[in-house]
């Protein structure tokens, strides 16, 4: 029988991709936890959409890309040459694709001039939750970089653009339903 538990993390450490171990409280591992949470929040949003809709497919793509972000972050720094752009490391093309998606969505449905209160629909609420978690992951990655950990610049760009994209997708997800503004 294959067991999910290995007991190797009982000492408070976790393994890096391609070898090595770090504390589970390491900034990079904290960021990976935030990314894992964002993947789950996007899954909640995706579950409230039609399975084969454009929105569901876009959210699935973003979930998969977040696995790439986590792999890029959680790699043994001495083994980065083993990463594959777009599969285990964030590529500039991934960032470009997000920017193109933002531009296309905003051109179809321009953003309002005020912030809105999340919770108009379950899809939008899940997207706004995911956006908040991605922003937390970005802050954690910045802390790790400032502490001297290796962080590829594409990871930071990707997370920054992703939070923008999730805001745009959430606004689009409500359709013509009016969202309450953040202030009266």
CATH topology category name: Hypothetical Protein Ta1238, Chain: A
Beta-strand residue percentage: under 5%
CATH architecture descriptor text: Up-down Bundle
Would you tell me the structural class of the helices and strands? mainly alpha
Q: What percentage of residues falls in helices of 4 or more residues?
A: 55-70%
Q: How many DSSP E strands? A: 2
Radius of gyration: 18 Å
The largest sheet, given as strand count, sense and whether it forms a barrel, is:
2 strands, antiparallel
**Global mean pLDDT:** 92
Q: What is the chain-wise order of helices and strands? A: EEHHHHH
What is the fourth-level CATH superfamily? Answer: Cobalamin adenosyltransferase-like
| Count of separate structural domains | 1
First and last CA, distance? 59 Å
Indicate the CATH class: Mainly Alpha
Output the strand order for the largest sheet. Answer: 1-2
Question: What overall geometry do the principal axes of the alpha carbons give?
Answer: elongated
Query: Given the structure, what is the number of helices?
Result: 5
Low-confidence region ranges: none
Quick overview of this protein structure:
The protein has helices at residues 27-47, 54-73, 92-108, 122-146, 153-173, and strands at 13-15, 21-23. The protein has 184 residues and is mainly alpha-helical. It is elongated, with a radius of gyration of 18 Å.
């Amino acid at each position: 029988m294959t067991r999910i538990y290995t007991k190797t993390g009982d000492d408070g450490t976790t393994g890096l991709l391609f070898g090595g171990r770090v504390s589970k409280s390491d900034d990079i591992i904290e960021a990976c936890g935030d990314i894992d949470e964002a993947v789950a929040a996007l899954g909640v949003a995706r579950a409230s959409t039609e399975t084969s809709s454009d929105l569901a497919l876009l959210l699935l793509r973003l979930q998969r890309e977040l696995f790439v972000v986590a792999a890029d972050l959680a790699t043994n720094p001495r083994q980065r040459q083993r990463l594959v752009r777009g599969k285990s490391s964030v590529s500039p093309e991934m960032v470009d694709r997000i920017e193109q998606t933002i531009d296309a969505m905003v051109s179809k449905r321009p953003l309002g001039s005020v912030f809105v209160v999340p919770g108009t629909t379950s899809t939008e609420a899940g997207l706004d939750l995911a956006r908040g978690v991605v922003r937390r992951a970005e802050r954690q990655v910045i802390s790790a970089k400032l502490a001297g950990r290796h962080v590829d610049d594409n990871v930071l760009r990707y997370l920054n653009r992703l939070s923008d994209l999730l805001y745009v997708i959430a606004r689009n997800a409500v359709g013509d339903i009016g969202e309450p503004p953040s202030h009266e």
